[in-house]
Design brief:
The protein is α/β, with parallel strands linked by helices. The chain has helices at about 1-20, 35-40, 70-80, 95-105, 145-155, 175, 195-200, and strands at about 25, 50-55, 55-60, 85-90, 115, 140-145, 170, 180-185, 220-225.
Length: about 240
Amino acid sequence: MARAAADHAACSLKQLLRELGTVRFLAATGASQLDFLSALRKQPGVDWTRVELFHLDEYVGIGNDHPASFARYIKERIIEPLGILNYHLLDGLRDPQELARQMSSELASAPVQLAFCGIGENGHLAFNDPPADFEAADPYIIVELDEACRRQQVGEGWFSSLDEVPKRALSISIPWLLKAGEILCIVPDRRKAKVVKACLEGPVSPLAPASILRVHPSAHVFLDTDSAALLDGSALP
């Protein structure tokens, strides 16, 4: 699954670079992306110096020296190994309102061609927990993290206890994620099977935020046999 997603991502990036010269993309983080990013780093022929990177979200109150920092994750697993020169990292220690305004302005300055994402155990996209705001106007918004989301971060080993997990985050909004020309959603693991079924075969609803991917004209969801285990195909095109 990771290799298939990386092959697709590299193909899209190379085509966009040929057509446009530069590419703006949104990068995801978390345990679900590790194998995909490892495979993507091995892809030949992508000129990463012509790629501009934004990332989806960051905890409020955590600096990039914290082990759970998404900015740190992006820097160590994407920016440095690939040699990306043009990037915008979210600093969780800055005033969140000011940071949201600045990053919203930077993201909205030109179209985004490609986005990578995953699906949380509660169905979230980025840090848009249910019920997600499908109508948010701004590119980056401040969100409250629900307990299910925060427990997932403990379960994946990013924090040692629930009390350590911040209760707020800065996140790209759902409408602005959907503005990306193409979306690749990478979702491995049996613990995601129930929510994958809800998002892909249940109603499109803010209660299952990732279900909104079904309205995007070029969204590709990559599943493994575990995460796809409960699907029956009844609602898929």
